[in-house]
Design a protein that fits this description.
- The protein is an alpha/beta fold and about 375 residues long.
- The protein is about 30% helix and about 15% strand.
- It has an eight-stranded parallel barrel, surrounded by five helices.
- The chain starts with 7 loop residues before the first strand and ends in a 30-residue tail after the last helix.
């Protein structure tokens, strides 16, 4: 039996298999509001047979957007727009849906990737980003505004408010974004956090604000709704955040009731040196999994069915996150199930596509016509 296609629980959420569609920014919102692009994008992914679909990084404040086109969840308007999209998706799919709540910190106010992805100055239509310290992401950039006590409270409360909106939307899972060089990761990393107060310096202090955000969000969620965190396990820069610190953070999260940890890497510094290759981040997830009891999701250039199967079968991770490979092939789970001899859920409108060589791919289905 394929291990990739066995069920798993994240908290009290039961998933039919271990394929997670990882968050992927679409840069297609209008003032934070979801659009028809999101309906098309999420609609096709929700028919893919994956165990879980996590919506893209969703900003908890307008100034927390990576780009002006980021999805947001900070107002009644942004909530209503996303509610409409989700209602249409759910009409045809019962796939569990999660959301990644995020704040870009000093990496906010950027152009979209297809427009170069660089910082937008306030005079050019951007805004002044905030961060743990007045240290720019790149040396040539203007520094962000260092958050004071009121700013920290505003960010924390905004995560809470967005989580409460997520509950009202009926989302099945929440992931806090503490990876890829965005605000919560910036607090963790000594490369971005050089504060002299209780939120900087020692590992305990650098973890303090992300843990406060986690605790505040956990406190307002209904019992049983899974809450997890995505991390960058290493900055890939000497003297930066690393796996040992990630393990300490993971253990602190676990003690607070964290339901899963989603392991990525990098993003906080342009000096990073990433050894790209198939599954290059999986060893990071495997090392963390050895030290924590909660489920671990691995990601990073996982493109082949056999590769994903081995990650789960060898115990390197409990679930496998698929992102770019899903954009390239939105039916990736179908094809993986065919390769691994497993069964996957497909909408009945597509049952006729089941290949003659895989007669049980979609399970015990019956079709007929006159």
């Amino acid at each position: 039996m394929s291990q990739l296609f066995t069920p798993i629980e994240l908290g009290q959420l039961k998933l039919p298999n271990r394929i997670v569609i990882a968050p992927m920014c679409q840069y297609s919102a209008e003032d934070g509001r979801a659009t028809d692009w999101h309906l098309i994008h999420l609609g096709q992914l929700a028919l893919s047979g994956a165990g879980l679909l996590i919506l893209e990084a969703t900003a908890v404040t307008p100034e927390g957007r990576i780009t002006p086109a980021d999805l947001g969840l900070w107002s009644d308007d942004t909530e209503a727009a996303l509610a409409g999209v989700l209602a249409s998706v759910r009409k045809y799919s019962d796939m569990p849906l999660g959301i990644q709540l995020a704040h870009a910190g000093r990496k906010a106010s950027s152009h979209t990737p297809w427009d170069g992805g660089q910082l937008i100055a306030p005079e050019a239509g951007g805004w002044c980003p905030v961060g743990p310290s007045a240290i720019p992401h790149a040396p040539a950039e203007a520094p962000p505004l260092a958050l004071d006590a009121a700013g920290l409270a505003h960010v924390r409360d905004s995560f809470v408010a967005a989580a409460q909106r997520s509950v009202r939307l009926g989302l099945d899972l929440i992931e806090l974004h503490a990876a890829h060089g965005y605000l919560l990761h910036q607090f963790l990393s000594p490369l971005a956090n050089q504060r002299g107060d209780d939120y900087g310096g020692s590992l305990e202090n650098r973890m303090r604000f992300p843990l406060e955000v986690f605790d505040a969000v956990r406190a307002v969620l209904p019992a049983g709704l899974p809450l997890g965190v995505r991390i960058s396990a290493t900055d890939w820069v000497e003297g930066g955040w690393d796996v040992a610190q990630s393990i300490a953070f993971g253990k602190a999260l676990q003690a607070r009731g964290c339901d899963f940890i989603h392991v990525s890497s990098g993003g906080v510094s342009p000096l990073q040196k990433i050894p790209l290759g198939p599954g290059y981040q999986v060893p990071l997830a495997a090392e963390i999994r050895q030290q924590v009891a909660m489920p671990v999701i691995a990601v990073g250039l996982v493109t082949e069915a056999e590769q994903a199967e081995q990650i789960v079968a060898r115990g390197q991770a409990d679930c496998v996150g698929i992102a770019r490979a899903m954009l390239y092939n939105p039916r990736w789970p179908w094809h993986a199930a065919a390769v691994l001899g497993a069964t996957v859920k497909a909408p009945r409108q597509y049952w006729r596509s089941q290949p003659a060589t895989h007669k049980t791919l979609f399970g015990d289905i019956r079709i007929g016509q006159r």
